[in-house]
Description:
The chain is an alpha/beta fold and 147 residues long. It has a single domain, classed as 3-Layer(aba) Sandwich (Rossmann fold). The protein has helices spanning 14-19, 39-49, 76-84, 108-117; strands spanning 2-4, 28-31, 62-68, 87-98, 120-128, 132-139. The protein has a 6-stranded mixed β-sheet, covered by helices on one side. The longest helix is centred in the first third of the chain and has 11 residues, at 39-49. The chain is globular. It starts with a strand and ends in an 8-residue tail after the last strand.
Amino acid sequence: MSTTPVAGDGGATPGIVERMGFAPGMVVQELGWGSDVDEAFRAAVEEITGEEMVDEDTDEVVEIVVLWFRDDDGDLADVLVDAIGPLADNGFIWLLTPKRGREGYVEPSDIAEAAPTAGLSQTSLSTIGADWAGARLAPRKARSDKR
């Protein structure tokens, strides 16, 4: 599993967002938005993609889901199963959770347990600003048809 470092003050820059897999023209869905999210990260995603992120009401197929999740947001496995629905075949989820010591912190063991239950594998980690950590989750290939 690789780790995407952040530069300087830990703020999200377009280069970091690009290394996380965001690219021009991508449709990105954002779930779990709240007043505590990292607005610099959100702005960097929209700058790189050239598009506003779509919300949970979209009918579009999306390449990436940005899922802000806090410990009291419900059952993580259920939330992840719901987030998979609109994903393109090669899509993935960036699960963003508060860092250790922050309100709403999610134990890594909770992510490690919920991801496989939802049919996902954790493939890399990233730091999102001063308050958030990211885990890249991708559908397990065994789940999809082999062509």
